[in-house]
Write a structure and sequence with these properties.
The protein is mainly beta. It has helices at about 10-45, 130-135, 180-190; strands spanning about 50, 50-65, 70-75, 80, 90, 95-105, 105-110, 115-120, 120, 145-150, 155, 160-165, 170-180, 190-195, 205-210, 220-225, 235-255, 260, 265-270, 275-285, 290-295, 300-305, 315. The strands form five sheets. The chain has a six-stranded antiparallel β-barrel.
């Protein structure tokens, strides 16, 4: 038989509300106390790192145009061309047969007149690619990549079948560079440290021409590169990495740096005390490191690794 529900009294309802509020309050106080305890524990038992010596170098990409001496090889007859040593770029000795043009039962060999790199292709700038012309307005020149020929291609008498770049010769790079203080210093010394890529070991390149523009913010340069790999012959455009701005200092984690009273600094351990030390000069050098250039900080100093929750005062290391 159905019976109506008994209505709860106001007193019991108030008791349940008060009880629920009291439980929530206890939980909140417990959480706060828990966080406060561990926050306090972390502040007096901070993670420590040690200042280490560091030399930072800036790597500046420089885009420019390559210049070299070359000669175009042409077919002595109509026929089909074959490349016995491959289409290249390939290094060949003087007198080597780099191409053979056949017509019926007869054939003509094209031999290298000197040692060098042979490439069975042209980019269309051969004969017109001269330093004296390009230097005046480097930005206007946009060379194409080499269009390669193939074994078995049909050629006409006098048509080009490739080119020979004599070796040894100095590879040169013409470029317009932005003049940072580090770049000015390197160029003025008449040598710069250069790399083919980020994994390459730096080499010395001679500054053949250094011509600062009137604005003082950029300059035209002609560099003598210390290498001449055959792969560069596929395009006259080239990106070089120049190493400039070598700076010595102390490296610490970026998280160890904070701002206090408008001053940037770190917390350094002096005995059992944490002392805020201002950084006069410094900068971020990657996603996790900070280079201290000028501060009352030296190699081997103990620094609090995470400055966000650090404070001045007594600390316990263990």
């Amino acid at each position: 038989m159905w019976e109506p529900a008994v209505k709860e009294s106001p007193k019991r309802t108030a008791y349940r509300i008060f009880y629920g509020f009291f439980v929530i309050l206890i939980v909140a106080v417990w959480i706060y106390a828990f966080k406060f305890y561990f926050g306090y524990y972390d502040s007096v038992h901070p993670k420590i790192t040690w200042a280490s010596p560091w030399v930072q170098t800036d790597i500046v990409p420089v885009d420019g145009l390559l210049v070299w001496d070359e000669s175009v090889l042409t077919s002595p007859r109509d026929g089909t061309v074959k490349y016995p040593l491959g289409t290249g770029p390939v290094r060949v000795p003087k007198g080597a047969t780099v191409a053979r043009v056949s017509s019926g039962s007869s054939a003509s060999d094209i031999k290298s007149s000197q040692e060098g790199y042979f490439v069975a292709g042209l980019d269309g700038s051969e004969g017109d690619w001269k330093y004296s012309e390009i230097w005046r307005n480097t930005e206007q020149y946009d060379p194409k990549t080499v269009k390669m020929s193939k074994d078995g291609a049909k050629v006409r008498n006098g048509s080009p079948i490739g080119k020979l770049v004599n070796q040894p010769q100095t590879l040169r790079l013409m470029a317009s560079v932005y003049l940072t203080e580090g770049m000015k210093k390197e160029l003025s010394s008449k040598t710069v440290k250069v790399k083919m890529d980020t994994l390459d070991t730096p080499s010395q390149a001679e500054v053949d021409v250094y011509d600062p523009e009137e604005s003082g913010t950029s300059a035209k340069v002609l560099l003598k590169l210390p290498w001449f790999p055959p792969r560069v012959l596929m395009s006259r455009k080239y990106r070089l990495l120049v190493q400039t701005g070598e700076t010595s200092g102390i490296a610490i984690p970026e998280a160890a740096v904070t701002v206090k009273d408008g001053k940037r600094g770190v917390y350094v351990l002096k005995g059992a005390e944490s002392v805020f030390t201002e950084i006069i000069e410094g900068r971020v050098i990657d996603a996790s490191k900070f280079l201290v250039i000028s501060a009352d900080l030296k190699f081997g100093d103990a620094v609090i690794a995470e400055a966000e929750d650090a404070r001045e005062g007594r600390v316990r290391l263990w």
